[in-house]
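The methods section describes the discrete structure representation at length, but only in general terms. What matters is that the chain and its backbone geometry are given together, residue for residue. Nothing conveys this as quickly as seeing an actual entry. For illustration, here is how one protein appears when written out as sequence plus structure tokens:
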Amino acid sequence: MDADRTFATPTDDARCPCGSGSTYGECCGPLLAGRAAPTAVQLMRSRYTAFVVGDRVYLLATWHPSTRPDRLELDPEVRWRSLEIVRTERGGPLDREGVVEFAARYAHGDERGVQRETSRFIREEGWRYLDGA
């Protein structure tokens, strides 16, 4: 993992930031370390965790090349607080496409907010984030 050191990385036995209920070592940790996500929702959870821990390299690597930006800056002042998966559509191990709608809560100084997005994923050499609305 290539996380920015201004971000905190959980220990393997800590609860995973994605809110799955599993430990980081059982959930998103292996994905951020290079294991392929078996489903679109698991990729979504691991990408959220990558934002939490500041792992730009993982975020760019899991972004589909057709929509991936050249670079990505993460604000270490933004603290991601929780992830809610609102709904999923397809995105299983045998699907080629998937949709994950989510709400991610954050804090930035005294500001509190929610980022809501319906993300599209495509499976080409593993699951990749395509875009969101």
In short: Confidence is low (pLDDT under 50) at residues 1-5. Strands lie at 78-90, 97-108, 111-123, 127-132. The longest strand covers residues 78-90. The CA atoms of residues 64 and 128 lie 5 Å apart.
